[in-house]
Amino acid sequence: MKERIICFALWLSEEDIARGTSSFGALNQGMHTLEVIAVTPTLLGANVGTTLDNVLAGAGPFCVHDPQAHGHALPLEGFAYRVVIMHAPGREQLLQVMRGFKAVLPDPQDMIFAVITDMARTWTFEEYIRHLGSEHEYMKTHDPNENPDMKRM
After folding, report:
1. pLDDT digits (tens, 9 = 90+) for 10-44
2. How far apart are CA 9 and CA 15, in angstroms?
3. Is residue 55 pLDDT above 70, yes or no?
4. Measured between alpha carbons, how far is 130 from 127 in angstroms, rounded to an integer?
5. Cα dihedral sign for 100, 105, 107, 112?
């Protein structure tokens, strides 16, 4: 059985999602299933962890099969970046998602890719997206080598 990769996308059109998914498929060679869910107004106030668990279980109001879970990406007031929040079985699959979307979308440097961490699971989508935007702005203006709290790769 193929392992699922779940992504939640903000400010990506249906066409962007389709192009990114297709590009991912070419990189991944069909080994994993990529499911991209547009962040809707309802989803902004939802808990990230609970929503992810519901999607993975195929149950609940944010189930991938729920037609209202899909739709055009929602602009979050005062937020300037396209965002893809990812859940995948491993690092290589996360990198394939990022490469897939960056290869086919304009201005990939203005996209934020993030992983659903234990901390992120406790936040709402709006809280997590705003946090990611703050981190992105900080990284654009500061050298990560000068910050002792930055993780070394």
Report:
1. 989 999 999 999 999 999 888 899 999 998 888 99
2. 12
3. yes
4. 5
5. negative
The whole-chain average pLDDT of the chain stands at 85
Residue 42: name the closest of 63, 14, 21, 19 by CA.
63
Structure tokens at 43: 């989803």
SS (H, E, C) the chain: CCEEEEEEEECCCHHHHHHHHHHHHHHHCCCEEEEEEECCHHHHCCEHHHHHHHHHHCCCCCCCCCHHHCCCCCCCCCCCCEEEEEECCCHHHHHHHHHHHHHHCCCHHHEEEEECCCCHHHCEHHHHHHHHHHHHHHHHHCCHHHCCCCCCC
Which residue reads 């005062």 in tokens? 78
Q: Which amino acid appears at position 113 of this protein?
A: F
> What number is the average pLDDT over the span 36-62?
87
